[in-house]
Amino acid sequence: MSLFRLTLRNVLHRRFLSLLTVCAVAVTVGFIVLLTLSRESVEQGAKKGYGPFDLVIGAAGSETQLVLNTFYHIGAPTGNIPLAALDQAKQDQSVAEAYAMTTGDNYKGFPIVGLESGYFFTRYGGARLQEGSMYAHTGDTIVGSYVAKSLGLKVGDTFSGAHGLVQEEGLESAEAEHGEEHEEHGEEHGEGHDEDHAHGSFRYTVTGILPELHTPDDRAVFTTVDYAWAVHGLAPEDREITAVLVKPASLLGAHNLKQELDGSDGVQAVYTSKAVSDVLNAVDQGSRLLGVLTAICVLLAGISILLSLIAAAGERTKDVGLLRLLGKSRGYVWLTLTCEGLLVTATGLIAGLLLGHLGAYLLKDALFAQAGIQIQPYHWTPEHWLIALGAIAIGLLSSLGPAFRMYRMHPLALFKS
């Protein structure tokens, strides 16, 4: 009987214990693979999330909040700033491009972003729309590919937005149910009614659908900057913007503009890369905690393999003694147990790789919907090879103890025991 057939028969003879060991290895490997893919996706998504816009101007407050809201469409804006900040940025000789942004409304949970159309040409070059044309008039919109797919939107569709960045579920039914009560307390809730009515009566029209950009822009609705002014009927002197996206002509130019604007009239200018780096540092701190949990899982998987092989060695003492009496060498005996450990480990490794990528596939939509991070479930990273080598090494090391114990014993002692 060949060594492989003998090893396979021994593994199948102890199905339950072998299955538990395979599951321990598979869960550990799957967890590490999912963690690796998620971390790489977060890093890649964060780095390309802001494109060439190395500086962003917004209301004073949290730098991280400003960058996350502006480029990743996460969280609320820090506030509004005067239009004069846009004029100052555009007139600066060290600025290559500057675009205004307004935000604060949503459509079914997806942010509505007022943004000058030149942003798309500056960031994505000559990428064409998947369908339709760019917005040109107030109320025209183009929607990200993820939004169009999720909501079934197509060119020509119309809709109304809602105030805030989170859709209030059941708003219409609640209004109908409590209509009389709202009428009685009209003075108390009049301002809220006026705002709801303003958003409900303003209609957007889908004029185009963006191609898959693999950035947070896939999950947003874009329209003209003046949409917020039109919805709220603001006079020219009351008009403000949420942020200014700046592509500097040089790093020195970005520094000079930041010095001029930062801290003046409630305005802050933020280096985008610095704010993103702060977010990644926070992610790394969380990864360290997960790393500790991963190390514990690896240790438990190694112990599981070791216990499985110790049990196998105890069961197979007479069999090994008989093999030795039939003339099989000590090396053959050593290989039978070592190969058994490696076979169980390799089976768990393959199952774990499949499990990790399956988990990434199942979580990719949820991760993208919440954070705009596109996880690549089919991506193979250099760390995969390290995971595979580490798993095989742990399986081999766990096999050495029981195998060496059987190797040292005399065949008569093995048989008599």
UniProtKB/TrEMBL annotation:
Signal peptide per UniProt: none
Task of the protein: Part of the ABC transporter complex hrt involved in hemin import. Responsible for the translocation of the substrate across the membrane.
Coiled coil: none
Quaternary assembly: The complex is composed of two ATP-binding proteins (HrtA), two transmembrane proteins (HrtB) and a solute-binding protein.
InterPro entries: ABC-4/HrtB_transporter, ABC3_permease_C
UniProt-recorded name of the protein: Putative hemin transport system permease protein HrtB
Gene Ontology terms: cellular component: plasma membrane
Basic and acidic residues compositional bias, start-end: 175-198
Keyword Cell membrane on entry: yes
Keywords recorded for this protein, A-Z: Cell membrane, Membrane, Transmembrane, Transmembrane helix
Domain of life of the source: Bacteria
Region described as Disordered: 172-198
